[in-house]
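User: Let's play a game. I give you a shape written as tokens, and you guess the letters that built it. Ready? Here's round one.
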């Protein structure tokens, strides 16, 4: 995606808007970086973006999911010794991927290079449907700066990069849950010890909870605690074939009782070919 010169700034706003509508999405996004006014014009167009996704990991990425395709911006960052994600840092380079085509991308906003936090805010404005995924295992998170830059998050995912998280990973995850759950309505957990999340989920007010491949579902989970979750809908997916039929039946019996719970429905899924042992 090349940052092409577009002679729109000298035109009236209504004419500029009509010209923007004739461009493809890459050209429109490129134009949005030219100035705050250009950005506001692009936001006003109401682009056909299904949702915007931010991945906060070693190389943060921003994904724009549009009808039929996805545009991915990968922001390569310089790292300090403690591997802390600093939202004030400016990406060393930016790569954009659409389909099988990848190339350099160097937008300029108000004649200043944008830092990581500005990138996130810039793309968040394009869609009301916005999701942030945190990848735990290699980096630390500056929780306060994340909350300041991305307030009132409604949908987050926490992904553990290791099969078995260590104490540092667990602490990172608990800090993220503590910081963002008060506002979150949709939470996704990947490879996260389920028993450690119960105290946080129990005091949340979620609409949707998705749990993928919890490492301890059949080991240490107290199913009675699950019935206390303030969740309208919950999906649990596991590939653990060590969960007994007895535990599975007890799980559904407790949920059906709805003790102190407003849960409308639980779905427990097994991967194809996996079956709980008797």
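Assistant: Ready! My guess for every position:
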């Amino acid at each position: 995606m090349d940052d092409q010169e577009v002679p729109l700034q000298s035109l009236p706003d209504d004419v500029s808007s009509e010209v923007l509508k004739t461009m493809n999405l890459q050209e429109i996004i490129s134009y949005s970086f030219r100035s705050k006014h250009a950005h506001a014009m692009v936001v006003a167009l109401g682009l056909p973006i299904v949702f915007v996704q931010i991945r906060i990991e070693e190389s943060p990425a921003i994904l724009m999911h549009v009808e039929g395709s996805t545009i991915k911006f990968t922001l390569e960052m310089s790292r300090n010794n403690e591997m802390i994600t600093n939202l004030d840092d400016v990406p060393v380079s930016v790569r954009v991927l659409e389909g099988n085509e990848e190339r350099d991308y160097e937008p300029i906003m108000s004649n200043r290079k944008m830092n990581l936090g500005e990138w996130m805010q810039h793309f968040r404005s394009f869609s009301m449907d916005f999701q942030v995924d945190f990848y735990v295992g290699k980096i630390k998170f500056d929780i306060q700066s994340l909350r300041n830059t991305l307030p009132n998050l409604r949908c987050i995912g926490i992904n553990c990069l290791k099969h078995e998280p260590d104490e540092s990973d667990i602490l990172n995850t608990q800090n993220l849950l503590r910081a963002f759950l008060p506002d979150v309505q949709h939470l996704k957990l990947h490879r996260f010890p389920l028993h450690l999340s119960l105290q946080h989920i129990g005091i949340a007010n979620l609409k949707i909870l998705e749990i993928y491949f919890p490492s301890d579902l059949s080991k240490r989970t107290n199913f009675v605690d699950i019935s206390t979750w303030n969740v309208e809908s919950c999906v649990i997916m596991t590939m653990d074939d060590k969960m007994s039929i007895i535990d599975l039946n007890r799980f559904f019996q407790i949920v059906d009782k709805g003790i102190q719970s407003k849960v409308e429905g639980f779905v427990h899924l097994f991967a194809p070919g996996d079956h709980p042992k008797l």
